[in-house]
Write a structure and sequence with these properties.
The protein is an all-alpha fold. Helices cover 65% and strands 1% of the residues.
Length: 344
């Protein structure tokens, strides 16, 4: 049917109003997610001023589990089933939560939160390095190999290697880098074992963080004692670290991934060290020498290059058919959104 001509309408966005609203919504949540994860390193630093590192980690996991469990109830979802799935979740809980959270808490006893946030950004570099061994289908391109080398040059720049690492706490820095390595190992484990479990992301994440809470509940009493008094600011920092940085942040990430895909959502990784650095300088008065931001930018550039993929190859032309591009096979979906970034 042909419609009668109408007067020209004012210029409007080609996207329908509901879609424009959703796009604005995910951008807002993306920004909130970057802020929460960036400020998490400040929360860790403040939390360790009133509690032992293991206590900070246990509180973080406890409040994070509470938020995720509440979301599970609201969505009427259920925890995963099967001993095999729970066994793999226990390993993931240790590698992605209990171990790196504790390592970062111990690291920030002796290093600035700005440095911890930058060390967290090396996770994609460790991930690529390990994937060359653990994932036979993940072969590097020249660009990704260059990104790996560039990223580690950035790490050396942040640490001031030409000065002999003077003024740097080697132990604390090593713990922060080891935490980032643990994230990378954990995600490889998740990719290989939990990608086809059939359970929802929320279900797996709740089970994983819950198991990490149990792991810390068993360990913490052997290495810490209850503080004589509880200070308000460290307590609020631990609550924010768990409820916001571990619980609500994961829910935010699920929504962003669902709307715009994992590639766009993973870009939050590159904002975290910037926000962590700004927060540490502005609120904690941490000193920032020139090599720290310069090295951080090099690390982020290298990490971004390691996430590139091969361009699709042209399929051979067949008689009577146009040229077509063959898309690479889809990688297995991870059991939970990446934290990489996030992961802190």
């Amino acid at each position: 049917m042909t419609l009668p001509a109408a007067p020209p309408a004012p210029a409007r966005s080609p996207l329908p109003a509901p879609l424009r609203a959703r796009l604005l919504d995910w951008r807002v949540r993306f920004g909130v997610l970057a802020l929460i994860w960036g400020f998490s390193f400040l929360f860790i630093k403040v939390g360790t001023e009133g509690f032992a590192p293991f206590q900070v980690t246990f509180g973080r996991l406890l409040f994070g589990t509470a938020v995720l469990a509440a979301a599970l109830v609201v969505k009427r979802d259920r925890l995963p089933r099967g001993a095999r799935v729970w066994g793999h979740l226990a390993v993931a809980a240790f590698l992605l939560n209990a171990l790196p959270f504790s390592l970062f808490a111990y690291a920030e006893l002796t290093i600035p939160s700005t440095l911890a946030g930058i060390c967290n950004a090396t996770t994609p570099l460790w991930g690529m390095l390990l994937s060359l061994v653990a994932l036979s289908e993940d072969r590097p391109t020249r660009v990704r190999a260059a990104g790996l080398g560039l990223g580690f040059i950035g790490v050396l720049t942040v640490l001031g290697a030409w000065q002999g690492f003077s003024g740097l706490d080697v132990t604390g820095t090593a713990l922060a880098l080891l935490a980032s390595l643990s994230y990378a190992v954990g995600w490889i484990h998740v990719r290989r074992t939990l990608g086809g479990s059939g359970a929802s992301h929320l279900s797996l994440a709740t089970g994983q963080v819950g198991l990490a809470t149990l792991q810390l509940a068993l360990v913490t009493p052997f290495f810490t004692t209850l503080p004589d008094s509880v200070e308000v600011l460290p307590l609020l920092s631990v609550i924010a670290l768990g409820a916001l940085g571990t619980g609500w942040a994961m829910l935010l990430q699920y929504g962003v991934v669902a709307e715009v895909g994992p590639t766009t959502a993973s870009m939050v990784t590159y904002f975290i060290p910037v926000i962590a650095t700004a927060a540490g300088v502005a609120f904690l008065g941490e000193h920032l020498s020139w090599n720290t931001p310069v090295g951080a930018l090099v690390v982020l550039l290298g990490a971004a290059l390691t996430q590139t993929r091969r361009a699709p190859r042209r399929a051979p032309a067949t008689a009577g058919a146009p040229h077509a591009r063959t898309a690479p096979p889809e990688p297995p979906a991870p059991a939970a959104p990446r934290k990489t970034p996030a992961r802190i």
